[in-house]
Amino acid sequence: MARYTGPKTKIARKFGEAIYGEDKVLAKKNYPPGQHGANRRRKTSEYGTQLREKQKAKYTYGVLERQFRNLFDKAERTKGVTGEVLLQLLESRLDNVVYRLGIAKSRPAARQIVLHKHITVNGKVVNIPSYHVMPGDVIAVREKSKSLEVIADCLAGFNHSKYPWIEWDESSKSGKFLHVPQREDIPETIKEQLIVELYSK
């Protein structure tokens, strides 16, 4: 399965945000990467601004170009505001839900946990990170994986009330996807309208 495997700190510096989670380098070097990163004052075109926003969304959710385009096409065909629906589709990916539930510290880590068959959906093992989670689905840590230190460490002290669209049951180490999140509940600072404008050209 294809995914971005390049330097993550460089991407975070490019967008000026810790899109892969906590980034200590970004705190020290809050300017773009490269020899002239600290002194660059070039004006960005409208197209460049729109493209940057799309790239930011892709890197944030760990989705490559073809997957992202397919999700956008699906969002366009779905009733509602296209940009908002796009973010809702991205939030409904299994790897993202695993991340939001606190089972993993980052989306790449959540993707790995899913691929290694540590997660079940409605009692069945699912190892497809892009699996579309539906309202009412129960996402749980597989029984024999509950003792894994990496999962236990992530869950310890995690605030499970952060996201109103998911519900966590500590005793069973499972979460329920209650409903598709509203735009105001999604914490990402993505300007989805710019992505819609880019694809509309």
In words, what does this structure look like?
- There is one protein chain.
- The mean pLDDT is 87.
- It contains 9 helices and 5 strands; from the N terminus they run αααααααβββαββα.
- The protein has a 5-stranded antiparallel beta sheet with strand order 2-1-3-5-4, with helices on one face.
- Strand 1 and strand 2 form a beta hairpin.
- The two termini are 30 Å apart.
- 41% of the residues lie in helices and 8% in strands.
- Helix 3 packs across helix 9 and helix 4 packs across helix 5.
- It is α+β, with helices and mostly antiparallel strands and 201 residues long.
- It folds into 2 domains: 94 residues, Ribosomal protein S4/S9, N-terminal domain (Ribosomal Protein S4 Delta 41, Chain A, domain 1, Orthogonal Bundle), CATH 1.10.1050.10; 86 residues, Structural Genomics Hypothetical 15.5 Kd Protein In mrcA-pckA Intergenic Region, Chain A.
State the distance separating the first and last CA atoms. 30 Å
Number of strands: 5
- Helix content estimate: 40-55%
Question: Any idea of the CATH class of the largest domain?
Answer: Mainly Alpha
- Unreliable stretches (pLDDT < 50, length at least 5) are none
Q: What is the H/E string? A: HHHHHHHEEEHEEH
- Content-based structural category: alpha+beta
- Total helices: the number is 9
In round numbers, the mean pLDDT is 87
> Any idea how many domains?
2
